[in-house]
Amino acid sequence: MLSSIHIRDLAIVSAVELELHPGMTSLTGETGAGKSILIDALGLALGERADNGMIRQGSKRAEITAIFQTGDLPGVQQWLEEESLDDGTECILRRVLVRDGNSKAYVNGSPVTLKSLQSLGQRLVDIHGQHAHHSLLQRNHQIALLDSYANHHAQLNKLADTYTAWEKTQIEWRELQEASSERIHRLDLLRFQIDELTQLKLSPGELEELDRELQRLSNAGQLTESSYRVLTLLYDDDNSAQARLNHALTEIEALCSLDSQLDSCREMIENATIQIQEASTELRQYSDAIELDPQRLQQVEQRISEIHDLARKYRCRPEELTEQLVQRQEELKQLEQADIQLDALEQQCNELTERYQAQANKLDSSRRKAAKKLQQQVTEAISTLGMPDGEFKIEIEKLPLEKAGKSGLNRVEFLVSANPGHAPQPLSKVASGGELSRISLAIQVAAIECAQVPTLIFDEVDVGIGGGVAEIVGRLLRRLGENRQVLCVTHLPQVASQGHQHLQVKKEKDNKLGTRTQITTLNEDQRIEEVARMLGGVEITPQTLAHAREMIDLSQTLLETT
């Protein structure tokens, strides 16, 4: 239940603090006084979109705080615990609008997103605006209202999940089936490419080895000639390095006999002669092995050309050809399994179709059962709202599977007959504005009695009615107030007099503070004066006051006798 609301610097409200109580609270005031500001403020606290233009002129920010008692609301308490926002049995919603920035939202002192605030707000308050009956003409709203009345929330979520999975599987199956001809062409291409890449038989490191061999074969003549020339310089010539080192070795040996300190020098020269000898032997073997082999050179050049040509064809580097082969082999394997996938998807589609139809049929049956109950309740209600011969009917059409959707296989339409002997027709064709308003109120009352939201707000839903009908509307709202907290903004004394408590909205002008709105809780005498004002206008006579007192007393008497 909403226990209090605090508003600061919103629209023409500078500061308002209201304590609210269980039962029905009437909110009245002259036209333009700002009665809807309280509803707007509460809407902001519950997560409605904010407009910085709502901030009071001359102020930098506006602030709304709504305090709810949630001890007897297990669903709300559970939500708060799941979001780690619980703080005992009191829930404080705070919304701050900043002129030069974004609005901020808090739950029990912790910042929250607007989406989270809206999710919590839907569990705390249900607001019905004065134009709610306009949406009643829309079929999508009619089926939603019936589902709300029948508490189909869980069924609809389950059906929507099934439909989403079914639709996704159907799309996948169709795409795979439509791609069948393309898949065949792709399979042929992949098999050709795999065969082509396989026949290449490219081994790891082969290209590098071929490049080295090509270099050697292409320069065989130069390698042979240069090798023999180096061999002559090292070993074969009379003036070669080997001959000179031998001569140097003879000389150093003679010196070593005179001074042993030269032994290490002699040893290094000996090692040099040995290394030159070994190098000459290896160079001679290399030179003798070199062959001028034009045929092998041609083979190597052709092999390298094949590798590079295939790499250009597949738009990759030569060393990536092996990877290209592996990728195509994997794709071929997947495509060859497509038929298996197609069968599996078809089976899955059939299973989901059966599941969807079963859930939709169950929902259809529940809707028809709820529709009978709702149309009986609404027919009884509108008969007391100035339509004694009125009949309300809900027509439910079963749709073919081709027109399936997340909400099932039904088309729902609300019908009404205002006069006896006339078949019920769609609301838009037979209901006047006043009749539609009364029908809307009757449906809302019937649907609300099945809901679990603790606080109900009615913002001038009694527009277009008056007299005895208005009194009955007031009684309906008061009856709701016996089990719920009801806040009703009204212009009608017949409705206002039915409240358990009464709030008055006044617009005041101050030379310093400008125009501002004040909301006051009325005592018994003040309430009589306010109802009298609503009855008699500017001049309040003793008769008007007596009538107002009678209306208020009568509402209490009716309460005691019910």
Give a structural overview.
This protein has 562 residues and is α/β, with parallel strands linked by helices. Among the domains are: 1-130 and 460-562, Rossmann fold, CATH 3.40.50; 184-336, no CATH class. The protein has 20 helices and 15 strands. The protein has helices at 35-45, 74-82, 114-124, 132-135, 139-149, 153-178, 180-200, 206-218, 220-236, 241-256, 263-289, 294-313, 321-336, 338-383, 427-430, 433-448, 467-481, 493-496, 524-536, 542-561, and strands at residues 2-10, 13-19, 23-29, 61-69, 90-98, 104-107, 110-111, 125-128, 391-398, 410-417, 425-426, 455-459, 485-489, 501-510, 514-521. The strands form 3 sheets. It has a 6-stranded antiparallel sheet, with helices on one face. Helix 6 (153-178) packs antiparallel against helix 14 and helix 10 packs antiparallel against helix 11. The two termini are 24 Å apart. The mean pLDDT is 86.
